[in-house]
Amino acid sequence: MQEDLVFQNPLNDGLIIVTSAVLRQINRHRQITAEDHEAGGILLGARRGRHIDITFATTPKRGDRGSRAGFHRLSPFHQSFAIRAWRRLCRKLDYVGEWHTHPERNPSPSRIDRAEWAKLMRSRRSELVFMILGISGVWLGLSNRGIVKELARL
Known about the structure:
The chain is of the alpha+beta class. It has helices at 20-27, 77-88, 111-122, and strands at residues 5-9, 14-18, 40-48, 51-57, 65-67, 70-72, 94-101, 129-133, 138-144, 147-150. β3 and β4 form a beta hairpin.
C-alpha cells in the first residue's frame, strides 16, 4: 500500500500532502521503458490554511501530446474536469498545480519546465505546486513570487 507523500512548505511552515490515491493514479504513467513518452496533467486539492492537500490529478487524454522528452497538455478535458469538481465539491477544491514525468531516475526541472511554469505563475496569485515523477524518484516544487523552490520531503 502506497503512503501519502508529505513535504514541508518553507513559506509558512505548513505541509503539502500528496495523497496515496493521487500517487497510485499518476504512477501508472512513469517512464519505465525507453519507449515510454512523457505524461502529465493538473493537480487539484484543498488549501487549508497553511497546508495544501493534493487529492485529485488528471491524466493524459486524447488531444494531449507526449514525446520521450516532452509533454503538452492540450486537451480541454483537464480544465473542464477542474471546473466540474470545483462546483461539485462546493468550491472547496482548487487548481493547485501541474505534474508530469521525466525519463530519469531522480528527476529535476528542465529549462523548458521552468519557462512553462513561469507562464502559469503569471496568471495565478496563489502558490502553485509542480511535481515531476521520475523512474523511481519524485521532485516537488512550490512557486513563490515567480520562483519555484524545491521542497524537502518529510
